[in-house]
């Protein structure tokens, strides 16, 4: 990877490219608790496709927003992932409501899945790192719109979310919040899927400033 790790005991040095520096704080500075489980529907792939068709006919293009959140562990950047049923890994986020902005939707989803207060809006949502498109209801997501596709059915946008030095993460009991090293995720499509496996490359333009508090 082209990522750079900068170890600093206080604050990052002044740089003309501060927008491309991500401050990463130790995992030990965060508190983790649990709350009531979220309802999840048991559905087959056919059920999911049918649900997406119904939503598309009612609301048009389905838009999902997901968060890239980094922490430090063993002096290496780790990505926070939600795990469902021991084998499904997801970035925190989800589908936004009709008329809702990407930022508002992502903050709402983060609060629902990672905060004690679902109305919390204190999330620093940064730039959009990438977008993926689903040409129809059954196919996989692509990091572009195929030229023969005029009306894609779903768009997933991934945003960088910067953490403060400390925060309380309160996670539903039927989800696990994991910190996974970027080196384990890199191009590991089989385990994590194409979006998560591609995140290390999306982050290659950034320098990581690991702050030991």
List the helices and strands and how they pair.
Blueprint: E1 4-8, E2 21-24, E3 31-35, H1 45-59, E4 62-68, E5 70-73, E6 76-84, E7 88-90, E8 93-95, H2 102-114, E9 124-134, E10 154-162, E11 168-172, E12 176-181, H3 182-185, H4 189-197, H5 199-202, E13 207-211
Parallel strand pairs: 1-13, 2-13, 3-11, 4-10
Antiparallel strand pairs: 4-8, 5-6, 6-7, 6-12, 9-10
InterPro entries: Cleav_polyA_spec_factor_su5, NUDIX_hydrolase-like_dom_sf
Organism: Hevea brasiliensis (Para rubber tree)
Subunit structure: Homodimer. Component of the cleavage factor Im (CFIm) complex.
Task: Write structural notes for this entry.
By secondary structure, the protein is α/β, with parallel strands linked by helices. It has a single domain (about 5-210), classed as Nucleoside Triphosphate Pyrophosphohydrolase (Alpha-Beta Complex), CATH 3.90.79.10. It has 5 helices and 13 strands. It has helices spanning about 45-60, 100-115, 180-185, 190-195, 200, and strands spanning about 5-10, 20-25, 30-35, 60-70, 70-75, 75-85, 90, 95, 125-135, 155-160, 170, 175-180, 205-210. The strands form 4 sheets. Strands 8-4-10-9 form a 4-stranded mixed sheet. Strands 5, 6, 7 and 12 form a 4-stranded antiparallel sheet that branches. It has a 3-stranded parallel sheet with strand order 1-13-2, with no helix packed on it. β6 (about 75-85) and β7 (about 90) form a beta hairpin. The model is unreliable at about 1-15 (pLDDT under 50). Belongs to the Nudix hydrolase family. CPSF5 subfamily. InterPro entries: Cleav_polyA_spec_factor_su5, NUDIX_hydrolase-like_dom_sf. Homodimer. Component of the cleavage factor Im (CFIm) complex. Component of the cleavage factor Im (CFIm) complex that plays a key role in pre-mRNA 3'-processing.
